[in-house]
Amino acid sequence: MVQAKTWILTKHFDGFPKDSDFELKVEELPALKDGEVLLEAVFLSVDPYMRPFSRVRMNEGDVMIGTQVAKVIQSNNPAFPVGSHVVGRCGWRSHTVCDGVGLVPIMPEWPQDVSLSLALGAIGMPGLTALYGIEEILGLQKGETLLVNAAAGAVGSVVGQIAKIKGCKVVGSAGTDAKVAFLKELGFDEAFNYKTVGSMEEALKKASPDGYDCFFENVGGLSSSVALQQMKNFGRIAVCGAISTYNDSTPQTGPFPHLTMIFKQLKMEGFMQSRWEHKNPESLKRLMGWLKEGKLQCREHITKGFEKMPAAFMGILQGENVGKAIVAV
């Protein structure tokens, strides 16, 4: 019998998550039936979306939601041979028995010298989010100016790089000087530390005096209201996240953007990358192609040890990570 370690949500988060909201449990896994596989987690993803989604997609006592790269260690399913690797929404589990539904095999042409952890980052959900936000929502065109916040994170750092590949001016905001330096390494035209600038409005004006054609929104809250004021007429906003609001016990209020949106005739749309799942195989090949060409750089913030899942998760909500946060088992 194989034992699986699992992290349980013992209590729905009230404000910022606490250690006491999680419990590490051990369970005995059943023997495999026909068509089933046994997976062993290799890399697990921690992502900001887990904070709001836990409230609407989970009950207290459930295994925490999440995606992992896992190795097939036993198989009664010919589609998933022993030794192969898959991406699966198995949650915070060290081992999983499943029937293969929803598992995505790692692309066969995955280079030997590229870590499989990138299948949870730039060559995975965050990379797809960046790509679809830019192409499907914003329709970003060569020569336009793009603003992205939380720009040193898993999604934002890819957003900026894809925009540069497309021949655009890119302005990024981040929360530490080290992150700003990272953005400069990635080729961002302008980057600033929103925590230390005297005025967000002045920083945005200085970075792009003519305003912004497109805004890739990851943060929400007051800073976004300031950013909307700097949009050009007919500007487009892709709403991907609102991390500044995720841990609020009391919802933030105003200022409200409606008049700005009317006067500037702005277009704002929220999205999730799963809308274009049918495009994923080709999109992942495009992302991998940019990586191999040296046009896409990937920074990872790796925490070692399954027992550190809650700490790694809380760390991203405090902005500790540069690039994609990963837990290596």
Automatic annotation (TrEMBL):
<dbReference type="GO" id="GO:0005737">
    <property type="term" value="C:cytoplasm"/>
</dbReference>
<dbReference type="GO" id="GO:0047522">
    <property type="term" value="F:15-oxoprostaglandin 13-reductase [NAD(P)+] activity"/>
</dbReference>
<dbReference type="InterPro" id="IPR013149">
    <property type="entry name" value="ADH-like_C"/>
</dbReference>
<dbReference type="InterPro" id="IPR014190">
    <property type="entry name" value="PTGR1"/>
</dbReference>
<keyword id="KW-0379">Hydroxylation</keyword>
<keyword id="KW-0521">NADP</keyword>
<dbReference type="GO" id="GO:0006693">
    <property type="term" value="P:prostaglandin metabolic process"/>
</dbReference>
<dbReference type="InterPro" id="IPR020843">
    <property type="entry name" value="ER"/>
</dbReference>
<dbReference type="InterPro" id="IPR011032">
    <property type="entry name" value="GroES-like_sf"/>
</dbReference>
<keyword id="KW-0963">Cytoplasm</keyword>
<keyword id="KW-0443">Lipid metabolism</keyword>
<dbReference type="InterPro" id="IPR045010">
    <property type="entry name" value="MDR_fam"/>
</dbReference>
<feature type="domain" description="Enoyl reductase (ER)">
    <location>
        <begin position="15"/>
        <end position="327"/>
    </location>
</feature>
<keyword id="KW-0007">Acetylation</keyword>
<dbReference type="GO" id="GO:0032440">
    <property type="term" value="F:2-alkenal reductase [NAD(P)H] activity"/>
</dbReference>
<keyword id="KW-0560">Oxidoreductase</keyword>
<dbReference type="Pfam" id="PF00107">
    <property type="entry name" value="ADH_zinc_N"/>
</dbReference>
<keyword id="KW-0644">Prostaglandin metabolism</keyword>
<dbReference type="InterPro" id="IPR041694">
    <property type="entry name" value="ADH_N_2"/>
</dbReference>
<comment type="subunit">
    <text>Monomer or homodimer.</text>
</comment>
<protein>
    <recommendedName>
        <fullName>Prostaglandin reductase 1</fullName>
        <ecNumber>1.3.1.48</ecNumber>
        <ecNumber>1.3.1.74</ecNumber>
    </recommendedName>
</protein>
<keyword id="KW-0276">Fatty acid metabolism</keyword>
<comment type="similarity">
    <text>Belongs to the NADP-dependent oxidoreductase L4BD family.</text>
</comment>
<dbReference type="Pfam" id="PF16884">
    <property type="entry name" value="ADH_N_2"/>
</dbReference>
<dbReference type="InterPro" id="IPR036291">
    <property type="entry name" value="NAD(P)-bd_dom_sf"/>
</dbReference>
<keyword id="KW-0597">Phosphoprotein</keyword>
